[in-house]
Design a protein that fits this description.
It is a single chain. It is built from five helices and 22 strands. The strands form five sheets. Strands 1-2-3-6-5-4 form a six-stranded antiparallel β-barrel. Strands 7-8-11-16-13-12 form a six-stranded antiparallel barrel. A hairpin with a 2-residue loop joins β19 and β20 (315-316). By secondary structure, the protein is α+β, with helices and mostly antiparallel strands. It has helices at 2-48, 235-247, 270-273, 297-301, 320-327; strands spanning 52-56, 67-72, 78-81, 92-95, 101-110, 115-120, 143-148, 161-172, 175-177, 180-181, 187-191, 204-207, 212-216, 220-222, 228-229, 231-234, 275-277, 289-292, 308-312, 315-316, 335-342, 345-352. 22% of the residues lie in helices and 31% in strands. The protein has four domains: 1-38; 52-120, Beta Barrel (Thrombin, subunit H); 142-247, Thrombin, subunit H; 258-353, Roll (Pdz3 Domain). One of its GO terms (molecular function) is serine-type endopeptidase activity.
Length: 358
Amino acid sequence: MKQQFRFHLLMTLTLALTLILTLGVILPFTASQSARAENRLSPVINKILPCMVKIFGAGGISSLESYGTGFLISSDGHFVTVWSHVLDTDRVRVVLADGQRLTAQIVDFDPHRDLALLKLDGDFNDLPHINLEEITTANVGTRVLAFSNMFKVATGNEPVSVMHGVIASRTELEARRGSYEVPFAGPVYIVDAPTNNSGAAGGVLTDYQGQVIAMIGKELRNSETNTWVHYAMPIEGIAKAATAMKAGNYDGREGDPLNEPVDPKSRIKTRDLGFILVPDVVARTPAYVDRVLSETPAAEVGIQPDDLILFINDQIVPSIEDVMQVMARLEEFDDVKIILRRGDQILTLEFSVPVRED
């Protein structure tokens, strides 16, 4: 019995000693590896961080965060981000990497690309920025860095977050936000890292050499599996569109109706769809629904008084005047998609323009 006890004690001490010796070798080696990787990536991180901007705007209710991320693409203050509700404000507030607090205006946008180009208010000529001519593509297995102001960790001169990840695949995006399909359709990089968090949209994905690969997308769920999708949109399409927007000659939107002449007699009005907005008494009156007419498309899909109209057919409508401009380009039988806010909910409602009674 005593011999058996001594044997088990000896085995236990041997295993313990082996474990101690193993950890004594592995832990310093792992720490050394980590330190070398950090030193190797420091120049890349220090190059990209000054180009990042923290964006603050509309939102702040329920799951609608009021902040996001962007990155400068010119020395004079142009920057890009995702097209979202955060930009639905007269002046977007921006904080640069050095803590400067500025405002910015929208230059152009394309909801189908989830892309917006903005310009900082003021005169600049030496801002650090990402050169859109120095971009690259990635393959499966490419190690990447994700830069973003996720969860609003930075509000002043603090650096945005940097996350390590790996490109898992390049595929078509099949996802939705909430219960509705997103308008963006195209190839994306799927990232093996939790990159798509609140406020991260508009951040950048780079390789370990500091070349930009993609722009981080919104928080989305896979429309088939109902799982979160961590994805980024390839930079080549964004770079081409942003460059054209900056030059003022972007023509990539599908059938932009705001450039087409309209016959006043043929204009579709909100009443034709079955709802009436509050009186337009001041400049930029928000598009709140005043009442809904019975037995109309608006009533059938569930529009209610006090609903705030945010988008019509992917066009942002921050005021009643903007609603009227978009509505004026609709025709009978056209499909209409209205995104509205009801309390803390964001709803998407779809129907067709009915035949008007003369």
